[in-house]
Write a structure and sequence with these properties.
The structure is a homodimer. By secondary structure, chain A is mainly α. The first copy, chain A, is built from seven helices and three strands. Chain A folds into two domains: 69 residues, 2-Layer Sandwich (Phenylalanyl-tRNA Synthetase, Chain B, domain 1); 80 residues, no CATH class. In chain A, 61% of the residues lie in helices and 10% in strands. The interface between A and B is medium-sized, with 30 and 28 residues. The structure holds a DNA duplex.
Chain lengths: 157, 157
DNA sequence: TTAGATATGGTCAAATATAGTCAGAGAAGG
DNA sequence: CCTTCTCTGACTATATTTGACCATATCTAA
């Protein structure tokens, strides 16, 4: 069974393909108009199909001149490695876990010592919400976005 | 996808560039005339784009002979600049404010483009708690810890 | 000297244009 | 059935544009 979400997904994939830049700009309402659905369905497609795990980064802007920007992260060896690390983490990560992870990235020469230190300033307990559970959750979210970026950068080499 | 505000911003940036002094004098009504908009839109552009986080100071004078003066902050002493920013930030900072600030750090060669991008991954809205008020609070906390680190590093030189 | 006229710029809230979230209804597959 | 995925719409968040009203500096005429 092909759902509307599948069709929208294919359309977006196709558009990215044709762009030859691995990146596109869309207007949410244009898309929902084209497929005669509510705008929030576009969010649904993006949230379920164009995730970091699948290799996409999505940015957006609201208001006049608003847009959706979908960027494809290309695949390489490094990406596979980083993905593996990413998979190892569960749904939350402790300060110690994050620190260990950053150390590992440094050991693998994926980031420098200085970069590690800078990132640590943002991930350490003192920087985050004073909320035991959510702390680990957001720390992981931040880390995942960082990894997605690193994957994209590695690909440029 | 480009708004009038973006166009006005580019025009001002360009004018500053051409002046070779990192500083310009404008008449608000001249600008609003040039771009066929209400005068207050110029204030909007200035308030959202030429902020202290992005490295600008704006002065003005009303009445006959009134003007807008936009000054690009020249930074010679990195530490002084960092301290100033740290003092000036209030109790919260928006994603845009943080981005502008990071761009500024990059322009001043305090951090690299890569470092900026990495840090951005942790500070952007998508990485933080979905909580309108606290988002800005924690973003600022993270940034301040980063600045503290950078100041310490600068001192080592 | 000073009050009023004139010339600017500033503030703020409403109107408009987008996009995001979330919970619940509906559909498809086991 | 039961679960999971999809679809929808009401409500929310944010960026831009506009205009009515406010504040201040300078000039001018009494």
């Amino acid at each position: 069974m092909t759902t509307l979400s599948d069709i929208i997904e294919k359309y977006i994939l196709n558009t990215i393909q044709e762009s030859n830049k691995g990146e596109i700009l869309l207007k949410r309402t244009d898309l929902s108009g084209k497929f005669s659905c509510v705008p929030s369905q576009i969010n649904y497609v993006i949230n379920t199909r164009f995730t970091i795990e699948r290799g996409y980064i999505v940015e957006s802007k609201r208001g006049e001149g608003g847009y959706l920007k979908i960027v494809r992260i290309p695949v390489t060896e490094t990406k596979i490695y980083l993905n593996k690390i990413q998979e190892e983490t569960k749904s939350t990560i402790t300060a110690e876990g994050a620190r260990g992870f950053l150390n590992r990235l440094e050991e693998e020469n994926i980031i420098s010592k200085r970069e590690k230190n800078m990132i640590w300033q943002l991930l350490k307990d003192e920087s985050l919400p004073n909320d035991k559970d959510n702390k680990g959750y957001y720390r992981l979210k931040m880390l995942k976005n960082l990894i997605a970026y690193l994957i994209k950068e590695e690909e440029k080499k």
